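Regression check, zinc ion case 347:
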Amino acid sequence: MPSSVTLSECGIIVYNRGKKILLDPKRLVPSDYIFVSHAHIDHLHRKTAGCMVGKILASKATSLIANARGYAINNVYEECDGFKLIDTGHILGSKGLLMDLDLYYTGDISIRERAFMKPGALPKVHTLIIESTFGNPKYIFPSIDDVIHKTNKIISEMYDKGIPVILMGYPLGKAQLLTDFFGHWDPVYIHDAIHKMNFVYKELGIPLKSAVKFSTAERQGLLAKKPWVMISPLTHGRSNFIKNMKEKYDAITIGFSGWAMDTRHKFMMGLDHMMPFSDHCDYRELVDVVKKCNPKKIITFHGFSVDFAKVLRRMGFDAESINNISLRDKRKPLSDNTLDKYISNIG
Ligand SMILES: [Zn+2]
Ligand SMILES: [Zn+2]
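Current build output:
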């Protein structure tokens, strides 16, 4: 049992056996260990000059992907001093941190098989620190097959009319799954930001289809030959890029996000279609994770952490939101102008 878990300016800190462990810190403070669960920007940090930090715990894949994104997460340990990294099935290389076979921090987690992504593993522990992004019963996602089927149906109808379709998701993780699911359409173009990440995934052994980069296709006039499918980062429908694609090519947009379960979010995004598809657990899956880990003590963090802790307490678990054991503000609703930042920063 760790001596304490707390939320600070630089993220969650665990004190265990006299050691200080930073979990997915955004900023560094002196510590003995830093754990980086995966290479989404909201989980990466930059080096702070003169700050004494100890070993970095992360997977080799996370280190490689982080490097490709311009973050120097190097000399990583995958197992040492009683720490063990466990697959979380969120994106390639994503891991949770198991400490002394006693405490498990999930980072971001998915237990749903999605193409080359396998479900996260679930260790039995005393204390579980679990992400709760979608920890509200409103967020129960349809099956992946359902989402793929509906999307193929839209693309097929649009192809009949010669209309291009832009499929939009986070450039890292989601976009590679979209490339796998919808790469059979011809031609498929890949936005430059995603092309780079697809390349890293291929380097790491994921057999993604090679496709022409958006900038190359545009330069060579290929986009004028309609229809086509493009995989692009998720932005709202009023972004310059989408406005441009609509004016020039009459393209329609399909966004992929767990938040698509929320009609207000759907409206705010202003895309033609939104599909509920996430690299996080939905509500039911989060409950499943808790039951399988069967902890004595649960700390929820991120998203609906207060709601989810309440639900778990009703189920008889000893659960608490990290927000209630620290001073940090609760989640604020998104305003329209923070949406872009939100989309590019949170995975
Ligand atoms: Zn995250
Ligand atoms: Zn993430």
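Comparison notes: DSSP finds ten helices and 19 strands in the chain. The longest helix spans residues 144-160. No diff flagged against the previous build.
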